[in-house]
Amino acid sequence: MVSASSLQVSIRRFEPADWPQLWPLLRATFETGDTYAYAPDSREADVRKIWTEAPAATFVACGADGHVVGTYFIKANQPGLGSHVCNCGYVVARAAQGRGIAAAMCEHSQREAVAMDFRAMQFNLVVSTNERAVRLWQRLGFTVIGTLPRAFHHRRLGYVDALVFYKELVT
Amino acid sequence: MVSASSLQVSIRRFEPADWPQLWPLLRATFETGDTYAYAPDSREADVRKIWTEAPAATFVACGADGHVVGTYFIKANQPGLGSHVCNCGYVVARAAQGRGIAAAMCEHSQREAVAMDFRAMQFNLVVSTNERAVRLWQRLGFTVIGTLPRAFHHRRLGYVDALVFYKELVT
Fold first, then answer.
1. pLDDT in tens, A56-91
2. What number is the average pLDDT over the span A145-166?
3. Which chain B residues are within 8 Å of A150, Cβ to Cβ?
4. Predicted local confidence at residue B4, as pLDDT
5. Among B36, B82, B152, whose Cβ lies nearest the Cβ of A125?
6. Which chain B residues are within 8 Å of A124, Cβ to Cβ?
7. What percent of chain A has pLDDT over 70?
8. ipTM summary value
9. Residues of A numbered 114-153 whose beta carbons fall under 8 angstroms of chain B's beta carbons: which are they?
10. B85 has a chain A CB within 8 A of its CB
11. Were A142 and a residue from A25, A165, B32, B103 both cysteine, which residue would form a disulfide, CB within 3.0 to 4.6 Å?
């Protein structure tokens, strides 16, 4: 159990029975077109594959009543000789934002990453206008290694910069 | 036809009949484990998929006798809202290196990228010890946007830094 500003969440492996709760949460996030590159009109089957089948592992964060309030995946960011660096994606239900759930999931993911023998974690495309995420990753020890000019096509703002974040987990 | 220091190469779309020439060239490159993340012992079927099926397009550079001396692919680097940035991978036959073939292919790929409506080109994992590549991408107008510490597991040197290169093609 991770305490998160009055919200207790427990983080566990995704199970297929979670999908009916996960899909609306992911759809609502991608639809806004301001945080993830996945097309705002992504189809359910494609998202299920991307989020729960392609990654090495997928987790859910559940509130005290067992309801899913967040989710993340972890996977190798590159094949073969780059596969010691992992990549994660995190989503928190809109109604549960601002309560430390993303931070709890990111800390959980770093421990899982080390247990899975990853040596570093990389975020490839953090939208520069997503200030909450930028601040959070920095607070959790990630470094901006560079800025990709106009690499994200924000649904509302047009082309905006994206940041690459990196953190070594094993030195 | 592109003139390249006494070697004339023509660059055209890959055709399935090229594969028997392409595979030894790619295998020899990946085997060294010093430039690409693809596992040094990658299987032929996997490499064929990665290089000729998954990308948006694959090209070959042929010498005057029609023999394949180089190849590159082009694909979107991210889905949906990041899909206006492309990624390319280039390989030149060892015996044909140092004659400007990589430069000719990269210039060709930038024109193709614009024709395919990409707005920028990104290289995600350029091995820092691959000095020839680092110099070449800089000469061709790419910028190092950042350094990923120990992100590449060099077969001979162990963990070495990797660079992210980026070039806007349309501004």
1. 999 999 999 999 999 999 999 999 999 999 999 999
2. 98
3. 119-120, 168
4. 45
5. B82
6. 78, 124
7. 96
8. 0.94
9. 119-120, 122, 124-125, 144-153
10. yes
11. A165
Which phi and psi (to 5°) does residue A138 adopt? -65, -40
Instruction: Give the model confidence (pLDDT) of A2-51 as tens digits.
Output: 444 556 899 999 999 999 999 999 999 999 999 999 999 999 999 999 99
Q: Which of B32, B43, B78, B81 to mutate to test the interface with A (most CBs of A within 10 A)?
A: B81
| Cβ <8 Å between A149 and B164 | no
Tokens coding B105: 């292919």
Q: Is B79 in CB contact (< 8 Å) with chain A?
A: yes
Suggest the residue from A78, A81, A154, A157 to mutate for an interface test with chain B (most B CBs closer than 10 A).
Answer: A81
Q: What is the DSSP letter of B6?
A: T
Report the half-sphere exposure of B14 (CA within 13 A, side-chain side): 24
For A:19-58, CB contacts with B below 8 A are 33, 36-40, 42
If 0-12 CB within 10 Å is exposed, 13-18 middle and 19+ buried, where does residue A27 land? middle
Residue B8: band (very low, low, confident or very high) from pLDDT cuts 50, 70, 90: confident
Q: Do B122 and A42 touch (CB under 8 A)?
A: no
Asked if the model's pLDDT at residue B1 lies above 50, the reply is: no
* Sign of the dihedral defined by the CA atoms of residues A80, B113, B133, B44, in that order: positive
Q: Which residues contact B94 (CB under 8 A, 6 or more apart)?
A: B28, B29
Residues in CB range of B157: below 8 A, 6 or more apart: B34, B129
Closest-CA distance of chain B to residue A161, Å: 11
CA nearest to A52, candidates A91, A84, A96, A2: A91
* Gap between the Cα atoms of B94 and A5, Å rounded: 59
Tokens 């770093």 belong to A110
